[in-house]
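Thread title: Can someone regenerate the structure for this chain?

I was given the following input by a collaborator and told the matching structure tokens would be attached. They weren't. Posting the sequence so someone can regenerate them.
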Amino acid sequence: MRICSHPSPNFGERREGRAPELIVIHYTAMASAEAALTRLCAPEHEVSAHYLICERGGVFQLVAEEARAWHAGAGSWGGAGDVNSRSIGIELANPGDAPFAARQMRALEALLAEIMARHAIPPRGVIGHSDMAPGRKIDPGPRFDWRRLALQGLSVWPRAAEGGAAVPDPARFRAALIRFGYDPGTPPEILLAAFRLRFNPAGRGALTARETAMAADLAARWPFPAPSPADRRQSPAR
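Best answer:
Regenerated them for you:
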């Protein structure tokens, strides 16, 4: 795919020699890609991302992948903070309340596949800004098609397992999402909202049995970090 270089001065070194293990997807919440590009490259704003994908599918690289872009801010995933040092950030030009254009999604899919192959990042490592900063951020928002990415092996999607939770189980739901990667300090209502933003945008009201089963499936198939081969050998057979 064709990528246009548009360097931003807003970057630094990855701390402690960390290599990318996550890809964080954002939306810009701005009127246009041009406005976002200006902001992401302005020194006074101290914000950037590795890539920006415009509405028409054009891809701009702002920061080299080996460098630490300033896109994630405060938050954590998989029990660790400093997500900027552990991730590659992709901004999608979108005001936050509009569908994501087909050409933009195709460009994202191609870029994700390349980055994941380059850094050996598994599908569980592709997350939203709202996942690592629940309650503070909501992007890429309820209109982003996570299931579409999962069907291509570019992210993950839960199933409500057959014979799963018969009743809502807040304790099981919380434990499962923490094992999946969410911050254990997240209040229950914010954790449910973050889960729904990504996996059940139509969800309303109290936690459901189906959502409990979906969370349990995420934890069972995609815990973060993944178990080591030794841990898997010691686990009882299922």
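The chain has a mean pLDDT of 93.
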